[in-house]
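Lab notebook, bench 4. Still working through the backlog of constructs that have no structural model yet. Next entry is a single chain of 713 residues. Request: give me the structure tokens for it.
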Amino acid sequence: MTYSSWNLRTVNLTNFLGFLGSKEISFYNGLQFIHADNHAGKTSLAIGILWGITGELPSIGRITGNQFQLKHKLAAETDLGSSFLALNDKHGNTLSITRTIKSGGKTAKLVVQLNADLFEGAQAQEVIYNQIGLRHNSLEGCCVILQEQRFNFMTGDMKKNSDVIHDILGLSMLSKMMPILNDKIKRLKDLIKIYEGKDPRKKWEEHHQMLSKDLKDKETEAANHGCDPRNFSLSEFLQKEFHAIYQSLEISPPPGNMEAKATVVSLREAITSKRLRNPLKTKQDEFNSKVSQIKENQERIQRSKQSITKVVNAYSASTGQYKMGISELAAKLIDIAKSHAIKHQTFLLLKEQHGLYAHSLSLLQQQNSLCKCPLCNQAIDRQALIHDIHAKMDQSIKASLEIQENEVTQLSLEKATLEELQRKYNSFAETIRQHLHDLPETVRQFNSKYEEQITSFSDNPLIKLAPIIDFLDVLEKDIHRCHENALQELAQVNTSSQQYEEYLNPLEQRLDKIALYLIPIHEIHCKLLEHEERKNIGEEQSNAYIALLEATKSYHIQLTELKNFLQMQEKEKANQTVARHEGFVSQFFINVANNPNYDRIAITADTDRGSVKYDFEASSTKSPRFTDAAKHVLSGGDLSCACLGFMLSLMKGRSNKANFLVLDDPGESLDAIRMENLAANLQSTPDQQTIILTHQQDLAAKLRQAGAASINL
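Model written out:
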């Protein structure tokens, strides 16, 4: 059963948009208003009613954004968000709508109760469509006008006007297909340009010309480097060249067909192997080693000679300074040692005699009564004796001690100097011995007769300096002669080895020519043959492109026709719909705008740049010729009145099954007179339940004057 004239009685929003927890508002019949500041929840209430009835949300930027959610953002995860609407009619029938938000989403569970009957899901939504008089996928007849819908509609931007009307009329999906179709048509147009410029046969010809030119350049380069141009076109030419080289190397070619570059690598390895198997190679290596060893020994002897020469020069300088050599130094040291021993002994005896006198003097000084000698019993003069002892100690013995001590000291210094010189000479001798010690291993490698002679030099080498220098001169000359002989022998071996390898060098040069000039020619020949085989493929591709081009043009025509058909269909549907609302809009405009020049508003839909656009045109029944586009002659307040009238007509719908209207801030951009006219016009229909949500103090005052009831939010 279908009922009519439903009034809105109660709205309960729980954890919905701006309401945390539960908020219930009750409504009356007739005109009523809720006056509250911004952010108090007026728009949340309007959206809750709209969403509860339709299950849809209007295409408004902040609502369709990814961050938008119906459930209050501070509500707990387990808390439910819901919108509950209770309606009744004058016959006592009841209709309740409950939408419960699913966790984190914009979808909801729907439960509808019509009197005692309970409905859920899609069946419940059909009940709402039938009872309220809504159209599927449309907001027309939902009886709720959001502030942002009207603002977008009033901007004067034709696209925004069209988007709002399309959204309300349920033509949005049709409109949204236009950009997709336009994009597809553009893509097809671009493909047509690409396909029209594609010709594989032309590309094949260009590549063929490029290969031919490259072949000609390579052949010219090869001819300039001594290659016979007559052989370039022969497919077996490379194989003949390779076979001739294999024969010259006396080796068999590998079985099967080997790639040209791999064959060159194989032949180079064969030539290298031939060189490594050269019978003179071992002898050549031996002579190289011998020359290197002799050269090393020669340098070692030269270093030894230089070091020994330095020692000889240093030794000569020392002998010149000290006027003695190692032999004279040894004799001198023996003499000094003897003299030092004698002088030291004399010094000790004098020191002992001096001590005896000192002891005797001490005894005499202690024996005051002594007058006879204890040994011979002769009379003595004690004082005279003490005087004599003093005289001997002070003069003779003391002077002798000082002389002897000075002589001993002088001899010690001279001995130390000679011992230091002896250590220096010994160091010279040790240096020479070290160099002589290293020489036997060196000379043994080319003449062992020198070993015994070198050994004889190790004893007293400083005495044999002249023979050593003479020996080193002779040794240096001999090893130099050995080095020259070894170099001559090495040169002979190298000449013989070079003569052995002479036949390999032309083969290697021949391979270089093949690798640098003939193989590139052969490769381009192969590419030309392969490219010739692709000619048929190019023909097939060209035919395929032609067929694809024709198919693309056909799709382009079909999509263009589809786009034009959809535009025309959308335009016709839009015109059919808006034509039914012109009477209401004109009357609302007369009542609210009170413009003396215009009393009729016409709305037309037409195509513009691939989309349907809506135009308002104001006219006068008093002066039919007095007409112009609304956006040129109407003030902002007039345009707002026309837009509001059209929105009211759209949201009331055609079925008249809903007896309520919810307007969110309808007084925006209206002056005091138009606010008063709006309040009076809404009050002029007492059977209509009209709910105004506003933050404007002036509009609230005008509504009170018109007898509207006030509701607390």
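Notes after review: The first strand starts at residue 7 and ends at 16. The mean pLDDT is 78. Flag for follow-up if needed.
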